Amino acid sequence: MKQFIHPDFILHSETGKRLYHDYAEKLPIIDFHCHLSPEMMAIDRQFDTIGQIWLEGDHYKWRAMRSNGINEKYCTGKVSDWEKFEKWAETVPYTIGNPLYHWTHLELARYFDIHEQLSPKTARAIYDKANSLMSTPEYSTRNLLRKMKVEVVCTTDDPIDSLEFHLKLKKDFEIKVLPTWRPDKVVKPEDPSALNAYLKQLGEVSDIDIKDFKSLIEALDKRHAFFAEVGCKLSDHGLDRFFYAAFTQSEIDTIFAKLLAGKMISVDEAEKYISAVMLELCRMNHKRGWTQQFHVGALRNNNTRKFTQLGPDTGWDSIGNPQDSFKMSRFLDTLDAGDQLAQSILYNLNPADNEMMATMIGNFNDGSAPGKIQYGAAWWFLDQKTGMEEHLKALSALGLTTRFVGMVTDSRSFLSYPRHEYFRRIVCDYFGSEVDKGHIPNDDSLLKPAIEGISYYNAKNYFKF
C-alpha cells in the first residue's frame, strides 16, 4: 500500500509537483502569528510524551474527540497521557475529510518518521516509538523549531506581560522569538468590573495612575514602547468585528469615567469607546512602524456551561456573522486620512467575507510599499485545504497573490509547523493546475519568484525582522 504521506502528497498537477520540490520545499519558516509559550522555549521544555505535546491545549483535537463521543476527562481532565492519546487514536479514523487527519499524519511523518496511519490498532506502537524519541535532546522545544528550519516566531502577548522569557530568549537562542502586542482586554467594556481589574494591573506595570482616558492612552503607549524595546514589530487584535462610530473627545471622557466608576454603558457608548481606543492603538502601531493584524469574525464562548467550567480557548467557538464592510472601511479610512494607517493584515473567519476582504485591501494600498495592506491567510476554521484554495482564488481574482505574505501556524503546539508545508503544497498545486490549464504561462521567471515569495520571501521583506 502506498504511504499516505508521500513526496507528492496533495500535489496533483505535474507542474505543481515541480514547483513544490524545486522552489518551496526547503525554504525556512517565518511564523509571524502563533500562540506558542515563550516560557516553554525559554526553559527549553522537554515533553515527556507525545500525548502531552499533542493534546495539552489543542482545542481542535478536543472538539473532534467530543464530536466522536469521547468523555471530557480524556480532553481536559486528569487522566494519564496514554489514556488521552488512546482516545485521540480512537477518534482519528473518524476525522477523514477533516484537516486533522492530514495534520496528524504530517506531524507523525515529519517529526517522528512514522508513516503508519494512527488508529486503535497502531496506537500503542506509535505512542511508544514517538515517546522513545521525545526523551532525546533533539526533541526539546528549541530543537523542534530548529528541526523545522524556523527563523522567526512571533508569540501573542498581553500589554501587562513582563516579557521576561522573551528577554531571556533574546540572549541565548539564535531563532528570533518576538512578542506580539495583543491589547484585547482593554477594549472589552461589557463588564466594567473585569475591565477595572485589568486597568489596575495596567496602571501598576506602567507606573501610571489611570484616572481618565488620557492617562489610559499614556499607560498603553508606555507599554507599547517597552514592547518595541524588546523587539516587538507586530500587534494583533482579536475582535469579533470592526467597530466604528463617530465621537467627540468629551463623549469618550464621559464614557470612560462611567466605566471607571463601575457603571454599565449603552451599546452606542461601547461602540464609541472601542472605536476611540482602537484608533489610538493603531496610531501607536503606525508611530513605531509596526504591522497590525486584525483577526475578526469569531463567535466565541458559545457554550456557557462549558465556558464556566473550562474557561476560554477550550473549543467552544465558531464562525460569526459576516463583517460590516462599511464600519471596516470607515475605521481604516479614519486612520488613512491622517496618514496613520500602518501596514495591516486582515483575516476573516466567515468565508462569506472572502471577496469583500480581498477588495477592501485594495482601497488602502497606496503605493508606499508592495502589499502594504494584506489579505491574511485562511484562518482557524478556514485553514484547511478548501479554505486555503478559496482564499487563493479570491486573492488571485481581486488582488495580487504574488505579494501575499503567506502562512502562519496560529497554534499552541510545538508540532504544528508542518502546516507551513501543507500550505505550500496547496499553493504549488493551485499554481501548477492553473499552468497546466493554460491560464498561467509555464515560465519559471514568473513562477519561481511567486512560489518562493508566498512561501517565505514576501514575509521576510514585509516584516523586516
Task: Explain the overall architecture.
Helix 10 (192-206) crosses helix 11 (213-230), helix 12 (249-260) crosses helix 13 (267-287) and helix 17 (385-398) packs across helix 18. The protein folds into two domains: 14-46 and 140-463, TIM Barrel, CATH 3.20.20.140; 47-139, uronate isomerase, domain 2, chain A (Orthogonal Bundle). By secondary structure, the chain is of the alpha/beta class. The longest helix has 21 residues, at 267-287. Helix 9 (164-172) links the parallel strand 2 (150-154) and strand 3 (176-178). The chain has helices at residues 14-24, 38-42, 50-55, 59-67, 81-91, 99-112, 123-134, 141-147, 164-172, 192-206, 213-230, 249-260, 267-287, 304-310, 325-337, 354-364, 385-398, 418-436, 444-463, and strands spanning 29-31, 150-154, 176-178, 180-181, 234-237, 291-296, 298-299, 318-319, 343-348, 373-375. The strands form three sheets. It has a five-stranded parallel β-sheet with strand order 4-5-6-9-10, covered by helices on one side. Strands 1-2-3 form a three-stranded parallel β-sheet. It has 19 helices and ten strands.
